Each structure stands twice: as structure tokens, then as C-alpha cells.
Amino acid sequence: MTAVGFCGAWFILSCDKKLVAIHRKESREPFVFDCSSAEKNPKSLKKDNSSDGGPSEETGSDTVLAFAVSRSGKLLALTDDSKRLVLFQCEPSWRCISIRWVVRRCTSLVFSPAEDELLVADKSGDVYSFSVTEPQMEGELKMGHLSMLLAVAISPDDKYIITADLDEKIRVSHHRSPYNIQSFCLGHHQFVSALQIPPNHSHWLLSGSGDGSVKLWEYESGRCLQSWDLRLLEESSDPDTEKNMTVCRLTSSPDGRHVAVLCERVSTVYFFTLDQEGDKKLVPHSRLHLPHCPLDVNFDLEGRLWVLLDSSDAPLQMYRLGQNSWECESEHLELNRVTEALRPHWDTVEASTRTNNRFEHLYKVGFDNVSVYLQKKQQRLDEQQLKRRKDPAANGNKRPKKEASRAEIQSSA
């Protein structure tokens, strides 16, 4: 997974097996964590020693699957394909606090507002709680779904856990008693791939889906306030939009007024504005057409949008809101510093982009057996009718079975 984020003044990049942190303000040495050289799971080592040389089921590719940053920007956590859960301290300097192991491979994680708990959602549909204050403690099962979880969020008041799954559901559960479900946010027609509670709008929830739509919810009641199909926002038919559009990133500016939406393998960033007043809460603002396919986007603390592009010449671009549109700032000191520090790791970024669409296999495929049956049945009827037309004399000489049996009885009598 290739993703960008911000942890205080640090620019964060995850690509393939690495997490790279680059300071935007000062010329400091980048922090690099390579999962392939990290501590191994003792359980998997025991299984490897007792096996006959074949690969262990517990081993993985060490690819970073997800990371999360705490609200203060002082903590960061990542999880990888080898089921590690790594907790870092970012300030005043980078330090690995702990390495723990999860039960199943994870898809999303989030810090609690108090930064004393880390919630981890996995592919089996479970959410585990890991302590931050006791970094060596094992995780505790918090709640479960019947299908794969793709995103998890916590309300700013720490009252609700919000989870999104493969079966188009968004579930709002009480944090302290997750068996109590507050509401469901229903309306997507494909898996829900992204969730975010925008800053300064603590009772609203943004969601993105594999159906190419973005929705705004009042999550405590489950009421949908606004819904937009991104295909309808295009002025002309773009070949990219004819395919499945999967929302892979929802990110809001620090003041909560602007929202950027990115779809996987689509070279357009969609901007919306959030408005407390009026009937329309989520309003389309503009579209940003990029010269290369974007790998990820995110807002920094100053409200500027950083875009990671699939281009070795200009891998990073920065955009700031002008009067009516988002304008590129190509000669910014922070941008140049991060770009130069990123270049030694670009081979790793390119390797991670060669992987297939990570959401493509999640689309539901329907099988229509009835139409095939009706087609074959019609074909048999047509063949029988054609046979009768070709041999009318044979059909005329045939007598019904009842008449034939009556004639045989009379002749025998």
C-alpha cells in the first residue's frame, strides 16, 4: 500500500515494506523503518523450525498495510502483512515503542482521542483494542462483523466506534459496550472503502464506496444528509470513469471546510466544501486534473494538499486554494526538501505501484443461471420444431399411444 500522511512537521510515506518520515521544516535525517528487517513473530519461528522446509502460514510479505497518526502528532502506528503492529513515538525524536502481533491481517487502525488506545480492524471482521499506555499488552477483542472490515473510526467524544465492511454497511456502535448498536448508515451499493469524521463537524461522517459515490451522514441517527455520484460530476465521458470507480481516499482540511476525494486509478481529485447552513451540506467545488496517476493525497496542517504522483520526474505536487480553484505551488521550500529526500526511496515506491488494484477483487460478481437455462430450452424447442417441419409424413403416420394400445387389444381379442 502506498499512502501519505502527516505527523506533526513530518511527511509520512508508506510504500511496499518501508515507512519513511521526512521533516518538512528542517534538514534532518529521514527516519526509515523497514518491516523486512524488523523483529519476527516468535510463534512463526517455532512453526518454521518444526516444519519440513515449506512456507509457514504465519509468514507474510512484510508489506505495510495501513498506518495511523494520533491527534497530537506524537504517535504513529503501522501494521503489515506479517501481522505486526508497530507503535512509534514521533516527537521529540523517532523511537520504536513496541512490536506486537495481531490475530488476522489488518485493514485499518485508529487512535482514540485520548491517545491511550489503538483500535485495529482486520480482514475477518473483528476489531481489537490495543493499549498505548501499556505497549507490551496483547490486544483485546472489542467487536465483530460477519464480513471483512475496510475502515474504522472513533467519534471525537470517544462515544462511538464506526466500522465499514464489505457488505455495504456502516455500523455505529457504543465504544464502551460495542454489543449496543446505535445506528446503521445504509445506502451504498458496493463495499464501503473509506470513512472520515471531518474536523469541526463532530456529528458528521463522510464515506466513500466502490460504487463511486461519496455520502455525508449524521451518524448518530444514521440519516444520510447528502450523496454524490462522482461519475455525474464529469462534464464529458472519460474512459476512466466508465470502469469501476473506487473511492480510496477521503481527506479534509484542518478547518473542516474542504474535502478532497481520490478514486483509485483515476487522474482526477474531486473537491467539495462542507457547509453547516442550507439544505446542501456537501457541495461540489472543483476538479483537479493531474498530469499523472495519483497514488495518494492528503492535507497538511496548513491546509495545503499534497499529491503523490506516479512519476519519477515530479513525484510530489502541492496545491493551495486560491480565489476559486486549487493552484499548484511548484517552487515551495518544503516541497523541494521532501522531494529530494524522497528520491533515494523512489525505487521502492515504483515497486509498490506495480501491484494490482487492491479493491478490484472486492466487487461482487453475479451469476445469472436462469438466462442460460432459458436460452438452452429455447434452443431445444427450436430444434424440435425444425425437425417436425422437415419430416411431416413421419409425424402424420404416428398414432397416439392410447389409440395404438386399443388397436393391439382388439386384434389380440
Q: How large is the count of helical segments?
A: 7
Q: Major sheet: order of its strands?
A: 1-2-3-4
- Spans of at least 5 consecutive residues with low confidence: 51-57
Tell me, rounded to a whole number, the average pLDDT.
88
Structural class: alpha+beta
GO cellular component, one term: tRNA methyltransferase complex
Subcellular location: Nucleus
GO biological process, one term: tRNA (guanine-N7)-methylation
Family: Belongs to the WD repeat TRM82 family.
How would you sum up this structure, described in words?
The chain has 413 residues and is of the alpha+beta class. The protein has a domain at 374-412. The protein contains seven helices and 28 strands. It has a four-stranded antiparallel sheet with strand order 1-2-3-4. A four-stranded antiparallel sheet has the order 5-6-7-8, with no helix packed on it. Strand 26 (305-309) and strand 27 form a beta hairpin. Mean pLDDT is 88; it is low at 51-57.
Describe how the helices and strands are arranged.
Blueprint lengths: L2 E5 L2 E6 L2 E6 L7 E4 L7 H9 L13 E6 L5 E6 L3 E6 L5 E7 L4 E6 L5 E6 L3 E6 L8 E5 L4 E6 L5 E6 L4 E5 L6 E5 L6 E5 L7 E6 L3 E6 L4 E7 L9 H4 L4 E6 L5 E6 L4 E7 L7 E8 L4 E6 L5 E5 L6 E6 L4 E3 L4 H10 L3 H8 L15 H22 L1 H6 L3 H12 L1
Describe the structure using short key phrases.
four-stranded antiparallel sheet, alpha+beta, 17% helix, 413 residues, single chain
Quick overview of this protein structure:
By secondary structure, this protein is α+β, with helices and mostly antiparallel strands. A hairpin with a 5-residue loop joins strand 7 and strand 8.
